[in-house]
Write a structure and sequence with these properties.
The protein is built from 13 helices and twelve strands. The protein is α/β, with parallel strands linked by helices and 338 residues long. It has a six-stranded parallel beta sheet, sandwiched between helices. Strands 7-6-8-9-10-12 form a six-stranded mixed beta sheet, with helices on both faces. Strand 8, helix 10 and strand 9 form a beta-alpha-beta unit. Helix 1 (9-16) crosses helix 3 (35-48) and helix 9 (223-234) crosses helix 10. It is elongated and about 85 Å long. The N and C termini lie far apart (82 Å). The mean pLDDT is 87.
């Protein structure tokens, strides 16, 4: 009868008719085991589904062949990054461990350090950290950051052209005749949020449109905060005719508030997002947005980390271009069409 519960190395030895040290030699690729015996042990391992623990593996070999992907939560942005990382990891011999810090409120700062202290060394050999909140110049394992809060300082980092993308989004709205263009920005502690507001302001200045602080609200990249911000903006006596939201989740929130208020998109209000997560194309109407190459961000982050693990040199900062994707949520400003 096959063993039940968690399969141990003793179960494998018993089923293969060999000693535990022999199984250990086969698992770790050491010499001293006959070819026929090795094949028999490997067959039993395959049949029983035995896996040595990551901790035991790290103690034996000083490595686990596992890379951690650390995120604050699993949401559309991080999920798309994970897809790119997973694709790049195929065939490299590394396994992936996705870990969500699930941080809220004031505990969000420094979450990545706490997560690394739990995982580094015994569970993972290196880490890809998505939007870390603090500088990590010194870490116990190699680390690559995607879209770091504080910008590319202290360790290898990769991000997208936040300024250029935001500028393109705002220029698109200006070209459609919009002049009262609101901006729902992201979290105050995120470099990407700051840079996207910079791009928004640059486009306004280049077009000779004065910046109006009353048209800017903080949405925190979160649905609830965005809804409040959108209601304030769209409830103004002289409401904006267009909104550039700092991410797609915020833009989709604007679409919902507009619907509740009886505003038609794009006839009464144009909306642009940032990221191009899958739900952007399937929203009603489909969302005009700035596409970050999310899969490429994840894949290149993995490649950078692999280089560090192999002792090579990698760029300190890589920036990928963004692309404006025009869909049905933007149209000519009603005032400009008259």
């Amino acid at each position: 009868m096959p063993p039940t519960g968690r399969i141990t190395i003793s179960d494998v030895a018993r089923a293969a008719g060999v000693s535990v040290p022999t199984v250990s030699k086969v698992i770790n690729g050491r010499d001293g085991v006959a070819t026929a015996t090795s094949k028999r042990v490997l067959g039993v391992i395959e049949t029983l589904g035995y896996e040595s623990s990551l901790v035991a593996r790290s103690l034996r070999r000083s490595r686990t062949d596992v890379i951690g992907i650390l995120v604050t939560e699993f949401e559309p942005f991080s999920t798309e990054l994970l897809k790119g990382i997973s694709s790049a990891a195929t065939g490299t011999g590394y396994e992936l461990l996705a870990y969500a810090g699930l941080v809220v409120g004031e505990t969000r700062t420094g979450w990545e350090r706490r997560s690394l202290s739990r995982l580094a060394g015994t569970l993972i050999d290196g880490a890809i950290v998505v939007t870390p909140t603090t500088l990590m110049a010194s870490t116990p394992i190699p680390v690559v950051s995607i879209d770091p809060h504080t910008g590319p300082e202290g360790h290898a980092a990769i991000d997208s052209d936040n300024v250029g993308g935001a500028r393109a989004a705002t220029e698109h709205l200006i070209a459609l005749g919009h002049r009262r263009i609101a901006h729902i920005r992201g979290r105050r502690d995120l470099a990407s949020a700051e840079l996207r507001e910079v791009g928004y302001r640059q486009a306004l200045a280049a077009a000779g449109i004065p910046f109006d602080p009353d048209l800017v609200r903080v949405g925190d990249y979160q649905t609830a905060a965005t809804a409040d911000a959108a209601r304030e903006l769209l409830g103004m006596p002289d409401r904006p005719t267009a909104v550039f939201a700092a991410n797609d989740s915020s833009a989709l929130g604007v679409l919902e508030v507009a619907r509740v208020l009886g505003l038609r998109v794009p006839e009464d209000l144009s909306v642009v997002g940032f990221d191009d997560v899958p739900s952007a194309a399937s929203s009603v109407p489909p969302l005009t947005t700035v596409a970050q190459p999310l899969h490429d961000l994840g894949a290149q982050a993995f490649g950078m980390l692999l280089g560090l693990l192999q002792g090579g040199e990698v760029p300190g900062h890589v920036q990928l271009p963004t692309t404006l994707v025009v869909r049905a949520s933007t149209a000519v400003c009603p005032a400009a069409a008259r």
